[in-house]
Fold DUF91 domain-containing protein.
Amino acid sequence: MQILSEKEFEDVLVLHPELIEAGLTLIDRQAQLENKRTDLTFSDEKNNVLLVN
């Protein structure tokens, strides 16, 4: 079994967001939100925002 680094795991989710939920679109990567950083930011089909950290 191979263990992925955090960056490799993010790369997989960027390429295959359907692993989280069908219909997701990547908005940003490593976005700064106030005083915190989120790894990935997605939008769903209803324009809800999903933050992945």
